[in-house]
Every structure is written in C-alpha cells, then in structure tokens.
Specification:
Distance between the termini: 26 Å
Radius of gyration: 21 Å
Order of helices and strands: HHHHHHHHHHHH
Largest sheet: none
Number of domains: 1
Structural class: mainly alpha
C-alpha cells in the first residue's frame, strides 16, 4: 500500500469522524419520533444518491452490480447493520443519552481492531498492542462507571464494526455501495412513511418550511461521512480505521458534557484520560514508524543512485 494512498485514507477517515462526532448538533435540530426521523433520513438520502448516480450515468451500472447475489447479500447485511446503528444513535441523541452513545464509539475501535487481527490477519507491533490495551482499560473504566450492562454502547459498537468490515472487503466503490445499501432500505422506509400518513396523517418531522430544509440536510449529513469512511476503509488497514475513530466519541463526549449538559462523573473523566493515553502511545509509535520508513526509502534511493 503506497504512502499517498494511506495519507488520503487517513485524511478521509478523520474528516468522516469529525462530521460524525459533531452530528448530534444536527440531529438535535429535528423534531419527531426516532422512527420518523429514520424514515426521512433514508428517503432523503435515496433521492440525493439517485440524483448523483443519474448525473454520473451510473444507474444502469449499479443495477447490474446489484444482480450479483453475493454482492447483494453483503450489501443487505451492511444495510441492516447500518439501519440498526442509525436507529439507536438517533434515539440516544434525542433522549439525552449522548454520553452513553459516545461509550459505544469508544468501544467500537477495539472491536474493529480485533476484527482486523482475527478476520483479516492484520499484524500489530508491540507498541500498538500496548496502545490498544491501555485504551481497552479506559473503556472498562467507562463501562464500570455506567453501573449496568451498556447495551446501547455494545450494540452501536458491534453494528458499526461489522459494517466497516463488510465495506472494507466488499468489491464495490464507496458511492455505489452506499447507493445499493440505501436502495435496499428505501422500500421499507416508504412503507413506514405510508403507514405514518394513513395512521397519523403524515410524519411529525416535516410540518414547517424550515423542517423541510432540515430534512434535506439529513441526506448530506448521512451520505458525506459514509462515503468518506467507505473510501478510507479501502485505503488503510482496519486496525487504523478503528484507532482513528476515537475522534468520534471524544467529540460526542465533549458535546454531551458541555453542549447538552448531561450528567457525568469523575469515573468517566478517568476513563477518558486513560483512553487518550493509549492513543498517545499509538501516535508516538506511528511517528517513529513513519520516520523509519522515510529513512529506509532515502537509503534505498541512495543505493540506486550509486549503482
């Protein structure tokens, strides 16, 4: 894997993670039930991606790809994981559980790293193992501080880690893959919307002009980070995808404490510090490794010049 591809992958991953980390600010602007918000999100994203594919003249190509049963099964699985993740995250944000959701995204990178090592046979150096173990200790501190089985956090972590694994291994580009995933969700979303119209007279999410603008924005806040994430996952190793993802829960934790005034404890602060200590170990190892690779490249170039 070339260094340019890795740099692009890291940049795209970080951009996606910052958008996800700040996304509770956006979802708090909407009104309505969790199910209604999810329905609007899927429908708006379907329309947005459909327009992009038409402009790119890729609609026929996407349909052809979707006829492959193996790819369709993979995309159906990733779509189901994504829908579960979205539903639970929106519920958490709108029910003042952002801190608990952030715990899920603290846990998620550890699951991604384990999947990278066990499923994809990725190898970690000793300092990287140390960083992961320190971060895991921080997650344990946070979990114990919650005082119960953190089912929200576990579900968010596992669903998105397996989603990342599928998107890394599926033979599809980021845009085509997301288009197929949303297309698979779309019939269910339209059915749910029809039920809402018949039973309640419509969805409670878009009853005013400004809410229609917000509904349209759900497509951008959904598609942009997912496209960046899927593209990044194909350029860098899964363990790196996992470790960089700590940007998401850190931002969400800070929002929960300072923007949404959710209650927190000293135990959560300790867990937060321990996790970032692990990331510091990872960062130092990455800098040292990058310098060593650069030194080796310069030595190899010198030898080629001499010979």
């Amino acid at each position: 894997m070339n260094r340019g591809g890795i740099s692009q992958g890291v940049g795209r991953a970080l951009t996606a993670y910052v958008l996800w980390g700040l996304s509770p600010l956006f979802w708090r602007l909407g009104d309505g039930s969790t199910g209604s918000v999810l329905v609007v999100r899927v429908v708006a994203t379907f329309v947005f991606l459909g327009l992009i594919q038409l402009v790119r003249d890729r609609a026929a190509g996407v349909r052809a790809i979707a006829r492959n049963r193996r790819i369709l099964l993979l995309m159906a699985t990733s779509a189901a994981l994504l829908a579960v993740n979205w539903l639970l995250f929106i519920w958490s944000v709108t029910n003042d559980r952002v801190l608990e959701a952030s715990l899920g995204y603290f846990l998620n990178p550890l699951v991604s790293v384990m999947l990278g090592v066990t499923v994809l046979r990725e190898r970690l150096r000793a300092p990287q193992w140390l960083a992961i173990m320190v971060a895991a200790a921080g997650v344990i501190v946070l979990s114990v501080d919650v005082g119960r089985v953190p089912w929200i956090a576990i579900t968010l972590a596992v669903s998105f880690a397996f989603y990342g694994l599928i998107r890394k291994t599926a033979p599809l580009g980021s845009l085509d893959g997301l288009t197929i995933e949303i297309s698979l969700m779309f019939p269910l979303a339209v059915t749910a919307l029809a039920v809402l119209i018949v039973v309640d007279g419509g969805t409670d999410v878009v009853s005013e002009p400004l809410e229609w603008i917000w509904a349209g924005g759900t497509a951008l806040i959904t598609a942009a980070p997912l496209l960046l994430f899927a593209s990044a996952a194909r350029r860098i190793e899964l363990w790196m995808v996992g470790v960089l993802q700590y940007v998401v829960p850190t931002l969400q934790f800070l929002l929960g404490v300072f923007a949404f005034d959710e209650s927190w404890s000293g135990g959560q602060a300790v867990g937060f510090v321990v996790i970032w200590s692990g990331l510091a170990v990872f960062a130092v190892d990455g800098i040292v490794g990058a310098r060593q690779v650069g030194s080796d490249d310069r030595s190899a170039n010198t030898l080629r010049v001499r010979h």
